[in-house]
Amino acid sequence: MAITTRTFDAQEFLESSGLSRKIMQYARNEVIFAQGDDCDAVMYIQSGGVKLSVLSSGGRREAIVAMLGPGDFFGEGCLATQPIRIGSATAITPSTVLVIKKEQMMKVLHQQHGLSDLFITHMLSRNARIEQDLIDQLFNSSEKRLARALLLLARYGRQDEPEEVVPKISQELLSEMVGTTRSRVNFFMNKFKKMGFIEYNGNLAAGVRINRSLLTVVLHD
38: which DSSP letter? Predict the structure, then answer.
């Protein structure tokens, strides 16, 4: 069985000899795994979107650490002998997720070089994204952080044809991603709309159309 580094055929993977066939469907806002759960599987997003978040020790504050989409892996901490989940994963839209047990994932990474290459590329991209997020939080304004968050949700730079309409998302969730208040998010969203960078009817639950011109906010000094 050949798995290319550009695309991962989940169906082909599931039909491989000796592998379990576990595909999970999650509704919007459904928890995929919670902080403190056993860490025993790697997940691969076939469709939809997933939010990764971490709760403070007192459970009063939540930080969003990543927003993922089709073609992304998550939960890979189990491969580094992580016994429990250090954060939570929640579906932000109806999502289809392939669940691969730790033992199977380790086995197939050794046997299938295509999947191994894809997984390594994913990990390198994830590390680069973490560095970019840190720089974003340290040096960029909340306006730039919001523009970057919207572009990431539209998956600009992640595929040949970015999604023009981002998944249904609330201003509260955007404010958590950006690290600012909901009122500031509302102010900048209206500003982006007036400037023609985005299109929406005022209700984020209906989706937001992202225009490429929004990149100018991120690139402008």
Answer: B
Distance, in Å, from the CA atom of 216 to the CA atom of 147, rounded to the nearest integer, reads 9
d(CA 220, CA 212): 14
pTM for the complete prediction? 0.68
Name the amino acid, one letter, at 48.
G
Residue type for position 94: P
CB 101 within 8 A of CB 20: yes
Give the model confidence (pLDDT) of 98-150 as tens digits. 998 888 888 888 887 777 887 888 788 877 777 777 676 666 788 888 888 88
Which of the 8 DSSP states describes residue 196? T
CATH topology classification for 10-133: Jelly Rolls (2.60.120)
What does the angle CA 215 – CA 121 – CA 214 come to, to the nearest 5 degrees? 5
Q: What size, in residues, is the chain? A: 221
| Domain 141-219, CATH among 1.10.10.10, 1.25.40.10, 2.60.120.260, 3.20.20.70 | 1.10.10.10
* Phi/psi-derived region of residue 113, left when phi > 0, alpha when psi is between -120 and 50, beta in every other case: alpha
Q: Which residue has the tokens 């007192």?
A: 58
